[in-house]
Amino acid sequence: MTSKPLIDAHCHLDFKVFADDFESVLQRAKKQNIRDIIIPGTEKKYWQRITALSNSHAMLHPAYGLHPYWLSQHKDSDLAELDQYINSHSAIAIGECGLDFRDTQADKKHQLYFFEAQLTIAQAQQLPVIIHAVNATETVIQSIKKYKYLSGMIHSYSGSAEQARQLIDLDFYISISGSVTYEQAKKIRHVASSIPLTSLLIETDAPDQPDRIHQGNRNEPAFLSNTLAAIAALRKQPVDLIAQQTTLNAKQLFKI
To answer: What percent of the residues of the chain are helix, what percent strand, and what percent coil, each to the nearest 5?
Structure first.
């Protein structure tokens, strides 16, 4: 555990799996020195729930977007509504948006349309983007390059160290999740140990992607300390140093 404040850069606290013990989840997070949590949007129907949670708890910060995994649930009109929602509700980012090509039948063209439309909104609104990239990091890089004034994070990063360097050069942060705690996750462990600390964020992606200690259980923000400890061990740097810099990085990116 660290004595420094932490920021969970990506956590789906609006999901129903947290409804029964929401306040307890927040209390456990606070005990682990987590002071801020970013809640990304996934579908239009959940935006208002994120707004309500963020309005009720100062430590929660809203982002709004259309997640590629739920592509079949999105309508083209949702994009205009996203832009309008941002105009009338404060947000720290656009997202979660991106590309998910793990399914060989994925509608890549339609995903790309929604992704780049949200990048366009983010640039116009002067907001960072929270990007989901699964089996699609190279395509994500090529899309980002089309925009001059974008910044953001690649959440739960799964690309290579070389791709991470390209993204950092494009003014993006690399966010590491609990996958780094698994010894067999050699690629992400190499990324976590080799990229500049000034480009690193940490997240839980709760309720998904629990760390090795909590494998098979619901993930939650309090477990962020395990990801922090794993990264500190890999980098051979003090836990407090990692905590301090990743918190500063998140504050700079999201202006919180």
So the answer is: 50, 15, 35
Q: What is the dihedral of CA 122, 124, 127, 128, to 10 degrees?
A: 50
For the cut 80, the answer to whether the pLDDT of residue 106 exceeds it is no
Could you identify the residue written with the tokens 């983010």?
122
DSSP reduced 3-state for 216? coil
Of 64, 142, 62, give the one whose Cα is nearest residue 97: 64
For residue 255, what pLDDT is reported? 97
175-233: pLDDT as tens digits:
999 999 999 999 999 999 999 999 999 999 999 999 999 999 999 999 999 999 999 99
The C-alpha atoms of residue 63 and residue 41 are separated, in whole angstroms, by 6
Q: What is the C-alpha separation between 52 and 49, in angstroms, rounded? A: 5
Q: CA 117, 252, 173: angle at the middle one, nearest 5? A: 55
Instruction: Give pTM, 2 decimals.
Output: 0.96
| C-alpha pair distances (Å), 70 with each of 202, 216, 236, 251 | 24, 23, 39, 29
Q: 220 preceded by cis ω (within 30°)?
A: no
Query: Could you give phi then psi for residue 133, rounded to 5 degrees?
Result: -135, 105
Report residue 144 as tokens.
């980002």
At what angle are helices 108-125 and 77-88 packed, to 10 degrees?
20
CA-to-CA distance for 129 and 173, rounded, in angstroms? 10
> Which among 95, 158, 163, 156 is positioned nearest to 125, based on CA atoms?
95
